[in-house]
Amino acid sequence: MRIYRAKNYQELSRKAANIISAQVIIKPNCVLGLATGSSPIGTYKQLIEWYNKGDLDFSEVKSVNLDEYRGLGIESDQSYVYFMHHNFFDHINIKPENINLPNGKNPDAAAECARYEKVIESLGGIDLQLLGIGRNGHIGFNEPGSAFERLTHCVDLTESTIEANKRFFASADDVPRQAYTMGIQSIMHARRIVLIASGEDKAQAVHDAFFGPVTPEVPASVLQLHQEVYLVADEAALSLVK
Ligand code: GLP
């Protein structure tokens, strides 16, 4: 594991974008695993800036996103498909047919999860997976207790995640109770992983994930077993790491 200690969110975003852009330059038709949440917004902004300058070309890049709320689609501004278009895809030259997310509107969970795993497989796997981390150590929507061997599946969100994510909705009651998410195994198959964490409220999760025991109770702790992980965090998120 490599740890990049950034002074602040801006520096963190620049570093994460730098690793992603290197991936795109080395392999222009790479498969990027992408994430939502507030953490990667700065990274996407930086990538868009470099794209606008002419330094990056996404025309051959393929993307697969980690997760999506069950029941939400692009018409909902809380959906992850909307988030990705608004914060990234609509500002770069990625081809629409190369964009993949779980389809939250498919009510058949088993069929949707199987379809999504096939998509990842047909792309030849993920070259670089970007991750955020939940305050309870979740990655994607793999909540504490998720079995490490799971592939894409439908999850019941925990109260703590509903609580943390309600800021994007009118109220906690509006947060969907379920989501489709890549499983831990789907994530671990990625050839490279970049996890970004910012702010003091992530300090405990970062400490437990990277410096505690490897346990399903802290889903991100499985990343200690991955051979190429970059932790890009600011000083606040690393404040509990000696
Ligand atoms: C959600 C997403 C995760 C994300 C987490 C943290 O639950 N499913 O992929 O990592 O939130 O989000 P934030 O970056 O906003 O703290």
UniProtKB/TrEMBL annotation:
Residues 10-227 form the Glucosamine/galactosamine-6-phosphate isomerase domain. It is an enzyme of class 3 (hydrolase). Pathway: Amino-sugar metabolism; N-acetylneuraminate degradation; D-fructose 6-phosphate from N-acetylneuraminate: step 5/5. InterPro entries: Glc/Gal-6P_isomerase, Glucosamine6P_isomerase, Glucosamine6P_isomerase_CS, NagB/RpiA_transferase-like. Pfam families: Glucosamine_iso. Its EC number is 3.5.99.6. GO terms for cellular component: cytoplasm. The keyword Transferase does not apply. Keywords: Carbohydrate metabolism, Hydrolase. GO terms for biological process: carbohydrate metabolic process; glucosamine catabolic process; N-acetylglucosamine catabolic process; N-acetylneuraminate catabolic process. The active site is at residues 67, 136, 138, 143. One of its GO terms (molecular function) is identical protein binding. It catalyses: alpha-D-glucosamine 6-phosphate + H2O = beta-D-fructose 6-phosphate + NH4(+). Catalyzes the reversible isomerization-deamination of glucosamine 6-phosphate (GlcN6P) to form fructose 6-phosphate (Fru6P) and ammonium ion. Homohexamer. Belongs to the glucosamine/galactosamine-6-phosphate isomerase family. NagB subfamily. This is Glucosamine-6-phosphate deaminase. It comes from Candidatus Avisuccinivibrio stercorigallinarum.
